[in-house]
Specification:
Elements lengths: L27 E6 L10 E4 L3 E3 L4 H21 L3 E2 L6 E17 L23 E17 L6 E11 L2 H6 L1 H13 L9
Parallel strand pairs: 2-4, 2-5, 3-5
Antiparallel strand pairs: 1-7, 5-6, 6-7
Helix pairs in contact: 1-3
Length: 194
C-alpha cells in the first residue's frame, strides 16, 4: 500500500480534471527553453536518470516510476516523437517528489457572547483550542537535454501543487500523473520561430 503523504508527486506529482481532486488551475507550471534551438531537428528521444524522492517501499517506488515514464512517453509519442535508445536526438528525465507541509493555529474562545470577555481558554481546561493540519506540496520537473551535449538543457517544465488529501490523489495515481504530464508537456516542443 502506498504511503501517499510522501509522494503526492508524483504530483503534480504533480491536481487534475478528476473528481475529488483540485482542478488543474490550482497547479503552478513554469516552462523555460533555449530560444536559440531549432526544435524541428529533434525527433528521437531516450531516457536519462530520473529522480523520484519518496519514502515508499521499493516495489511501490518502481510502480510510481513506471507510471511516470509511461505517461511521459505517451505524451511524447502523441506529439510524433519516437523512443530510440541507440540514436536519440534528445534525452528526457524527470524529478518528482512530495514534501509535507504542516500548520498549527490557535483560535480564541468564541463561546463567549461578548467580545470584551472573550478569552483564550475559558471553556477549555487544557488551554486554547488548536487546529493542526498537513498537506503535501507535490512537485515534478521534466527536463529535455541535447543528446550531443547533455549539459545543454533545451527545455524544462516544472509543476507544483498543494495536495490536501494525498490518499485520494494516490487512489487515482495513474490518471493524476497523466494529467500532470499532459499539462507539463502541453507546450513541448515550443512553436517554431517565424
Amino acid at each position: 500500500m502506498f504511503e501517499a503523504r510522501s509522494l503526492a508527486a508524483a504530483l503534480f506529482i504533480a491536481g487534475t480534471l478528476l473528481e475529488g481532486v483540485p482542478p488543474l488551475a490550482a497547479q503552478k507550471v513554469a516552462v523555460a527553453f533555449n530560444k536559440s534551438i531549432d526544435f524541428g531537428r529533434y525527433k528521437r528521444f531516450a531516457w536519462r536518470e530520473n529522480y523520484l524522492i519518496t519514502v515508499q517501499h521499493p516495489e511501490d517506488q518502481k510502480r510510481i516510476d513506471a507510471v511516470l515514464r509511461e505517461s511521459i512517453e505517451r505524451q511524447l509519442r502523441a506529439k510524433g516523437f519516437v523512443q530510440d535508445h541507440d540514436r536519440p536526438d534528445f534525452f528526457v528525465s524527470y524529478e518528482a517528489g512530495g514534501f509535507i507541509q504542516d500548520g498549527v493555529g490557535v483560535r480564541p474562545d468564541t463561546v463567549q457572547p461578548n467580545v470584551s470577555t472573550m478569552t483564550w481558554s475559558s471553556a477549555y481546561p487544557a488551554g486554547a483550542p488548536m487546529d493542526v493540519w498537513t498537506s503535501t506540496l507535490a512537485k515534478m520537473r521534466i527536463t529535455m537535454s541535447d543528446a550531443s551535449d547533455t549539459s545543454l538543457k533545451i527545455w524544462q517544465a516544472t509543476a507544483s501543487q498543494k495536495i490536501d488529501d494525498p490518499q485520494k490523489f494516490m487512489r487515482k495515481m495513474p490518471q493524476n500523473i497523466e494529467s500532470v504530464s499532459a499539462k507539463l508537456l502541453k507546450d513541448f516542443p515550443p512553436a517554431a520561430k517565424r
